[in-house]
Amino acid sequence: MSPAVTRTLPNILITGTPGTGKSSLSRDLAERTGFEWLELSKLAKDWSCLSGFDEEYQSSVLDEDKLLDTLEPKMTNGGKIIDYHGCDFFPERWFDIVFVLRTDNTILYDRLQERGYTGKKLTENIECEIFQTLLEEAKSSYDEEIVHELPSNSQADATSNADRVVSWIEQWKKDNVK
Ligand SMILES: Nc1ncnc2c1ncn2[C@@H]1O[C@H](COP(=O)(O)OP(=O)(O)OP(=O)(O)O)[C@@H](O)[C@H]1O
Q1: Ligand 1: distance of its center to the CA of 81 in Å?
Q2: How far does the centroid of ligand 1 lie from the alpha carbon of residue 2, in Å?
Q3: What is the DSSP string of 55-95?
């Protein structure tokens, strides 16, 4: 962490292809740690940070600048978990650690289908996971040392991932809060 940053708790970014389990892990972590979970795909709507609707992908288009301006003051003191299926537009200085959730293609396919995804939306999300797009995006946007892949295929993975993040937070406090 840069010496200029004076957070008393770390900020955590959880990213990955849609359906890999970002919300589930973030919700669990927020309950266990008291950190504030910022679920950006929902908050962007609440904060009027959408700039339109993409008919082809049937999804909203983010007003990134407005969203970042809204988030900036919230990130100062730390203790935030941000969950989003993209990671290259946040300021690097915001995060102390970045987790990229990974799910096997066949498992992810079933999860997304169950959610009603079909056609191009389904195929492109599976391709996003196959080409490890979010992992590459995270590695090129943050110091590789703070980017960690977490398997998210099963309930056992979910439990061990949450345990791992909680342990990491405890260690961060020991190392950073005097
Ligand atoms: N580790 C896991 N093992 C089994 N099922 C899981 C796991 N993680 C999440 N799930 C299930 O997969 C589905 C998608 O999870 P979730 O909504 O948390 O994903 P997401 O990455 O937040 O998706 P989005 O980016 O679209 O919000 C849910 O039904 C959830 O219960």
Answers
A1: 16
A2: 33
A3: TTTTEEEE-HHHHHHHHHHHHTT--EEEEES--TTS-GGG-
Q: What is the DSSP string of 129-165?
A: HHTTHHHHHHHHHS-GGGEEEEE-SSHHHHHHHHHHH
* 111 in Cβ contact with 103 (< 8 Å): yes
Structure tokens at 78: 């730390």
pLDDT on residue 177: 80
Helices H / strands E in the chain, number of each: 7, 7
Token digits for 107? 């498992």
ipTM attached to this prediction? 0.98
Q: Which residues line ligand 1 (CB under 6 A)?
A: 16, 18-24, 41, 85, 111, 152-155, 157-158
Q: Please tell me the distance between residue 20's alpha carbon and the centre of ligand 1 in angstroms.
A: 5
Span 3-11, mean pLDDT?
80
Nearest-CA residue for ligand 1 atom 6 is 21
| Whole-structure pTM value | 0.95
